[in-house]
């Protein structure tokens, strides 16, 4: 299992960890349906702990 870290392009504040290879997901914050192929994937890893730490660092960058 691999994980992708994405940022919602609609609200631009929600960073989500999704399963690598899925086609779409829903933003847990604003409810937008997101086409994963059109999103920037910030990070891909098979290590969930690493995905969580990347998510945290992106969140800190988004909220200076
Ligand atoms: Zn959103």
Secondary structure layout plus pairing:
Layout: E1 3-7, E2 15-19, E3 24-26, E4 33-35, E5 41-45, H1 48-62
Antiparallel strand pairs: 1-2, 1-5, 3-4
Bound molecules: zinc ion.
Please explain how this structure is put together:
- There is one protein chain.
- By secondary structure, this protein is an alpha+beta fold.
- It has one domain.
- The protein contains one helix and five strands, in the order βββββα.
- The chain has a three-stranded antiparallel beta sheet with strand order 2-1-5, with helices on one face. The chain has a two-stranded antiparallel sheet with strand order 3-4.
- Zinc ion binds at residues 8, 10-11, 14, 27, 29-30, 32.
Q: Mean pLDDT, as a whole number?
A: 95
Instruction: Tell me the number of helical segments per DSSP (H or I, 4 or more residues long).
Output: 1
Helix percentage: 10-25%
* Poorly predicted residue ranges: none
Overall, the morphology is: globular
Straight-line N-to-C gap: 32 Å
For the largest sheet, list the strands in their spatial order.
Answer: 2-1-5
Number of E strands = 5
The secondary structure category is: alpha+beta
What percentage of amino acids are in beta strands? 25-35%
Largest sheet, in brief, is:
3 strands, antiparallel
Helix-strand topology string: EEEEEH
Overall number of structural domains: 1
Bound compounds: zinc ion
User: What is the radius of gyration computed over CA atoms, rounded to a whole number of angstroms?
Assistant: 11 Å
